[in-house]
Amino acid sequence: MNAHRRHEIFRRLQAANPHPSTELVYRTPFQLLVAVVLSAQATDKGVNQATQTLFAVADTPERMLALGEEGLKAHIRRIGLYQTKARNLIATCRLLLEAHGGEVPRERAALERLPGVGRKTANVVLNTAFGQPTIAVDTHIFRVANRTGLAPGKTVLEVERKLMRHVPREFHQHAHHWLILHGRYVCKARKPDCGACVIRDLCDYREKTA
pTM of this prediction? Predict the structure, then answer.
């Protein structure tokens, strides 16, 4: 795919949704971090239901640490892998307080040292909370990048690196959200809704639906 087509893809995605944002509900970088950690193998809807009650009683590292692992589990037990996530979040709260003054760090290396935080989670926090031009490649973005021919790759890291290299700089800030929302609602896994797709004529996918 050439640079002109890539630019046009993001121009159209921007025109259709000028101000994209995450569907996770949060007010602070810490709340976003918690929500993203919980979102692994879970839906945003399910996470939002859990954090609605959780953040009412534990919206800071101090309060969540005071809640304790068992108290945290009571709020998130309907989310997949909740026991591991509770353990990691309590450990993360402790580290945030001990090493970062209770604040979420703005550096990738520091974020990835937090328990339960990998590259994808760090990218989401850096982009959404701190406005850094990162792209967190999840299953939706991996699918869209490969299916459309925008940034084909066999691994998540390969796709991320190609997107960072090929997405026009003017679109870097919101590329993550445009692609994830496109994959979630239009370029769906089992049957893409090509009839509703604003970039269908720019896409390399051969088995387009009507």
Answer: 0.91
